[in-house]
Amino acid sequence: MAEAPGSAPPSVAHAKAGLREQVLAARDALPAQFRAQASATITGRVVRLEDFPAARSVLAYSAFGSEFDTGAFNAHVIGSGRQLVLPRVDRAARRLRLYVVDDVERDLVAGTWGIREPDPETCREVTIDEVDFVLVPGVAFDAQGRRLGYGGGFYDRLLAPASAELPRVVAAFSVQVVDVVPTEAHDCAMTTLVTERETTAFR
């Protein structure tokens, strides 16, 4: 059977799926108290990154499930006078649309997969070119800056046309760091990896 255009070779797709399942199980198994404490430590590390002070417009995301809790980070962005930008999934176009969020309680509504997303009726839409710093979600990462996402390719499509100078930061628990993440040509590399244990820069 012929592959769909742009699809991963079967071996790569299989490796990605297996790794995704393995890492998600490990992340889900972390105690809630550990995740809360580690998230606080990671948030402190991210806001102290060299690239962060100059960033006036920050693209982050609303965490779900057992992900690193972005709540404190998002609150810090708004509280420090920066512009917080959050994504909304456009399922028909298979892409992310970006909106400025002034108040996370008022401006977010239940969206795709139950994730809280900006309300397009009240939030102003912006483009990736208007963003100075990106906090990128994902499942697994390695010491070369490679990232394994959830399989939809949304962030790879969003970041592909962005400036090479745009900081792409991933915040994750140490159980999400693996030896090698299988990748393809279209997978976007990250610039910094932050865990509760360490910060690793790739440029």
Taken together, the total number of domains comes to 1
Main beta-sheet annotation: 8 strands, mixed
How far apart are the first and last residues' alpha carbons, in Å?
40 Å
Q: Helical content, roughly? A: 10-25%
What is the percentage of strand-forming residues? 15-25%
What's the short version?
By secondary structure, the protein is of the alpha/beta class. It is built from four helices and 13 strands.
List its salient traits:
203 residues, alpha/beta, Rossmann fold, three-stranded mixed sheet, 23% strand, disordered N terminus
Walk me through this protein's architecture.
With 203 residues, this protein is of the alpha/beta class. It has one domain: Rossmann fold (3-Layer(aba) Sandwich), CATH 3.40.50.10420. 25% of the residues lie in helices and 23% in strands. The protein is built from 4 helices and 13 strands. The strands form 3 sheets. It has an 8-stranded mixed sheet. A 3-stranded mixed sheet has the order 9-8-11.
Q: How do the helices and strands line up, and which of them pair or pack?
A:
Blueprint: H1 10-28, H2 32-47, E1 57-59, H3 71-79, E2 83-90, E3 95-101, E4 108-110, E5 116-118, E6 125-126, E7 133-136, E8 140-142, E9 147-148, H4 154-159, E10 168-171, E11 177-178, E12 192-194, E13 199-201
Parallel strand pairs: 1-2, 1-7, 7-10, 8-11, 10-12
Antiparallel strand pairs: 2-3, 3-6, 4-5, 8-9, 12-13
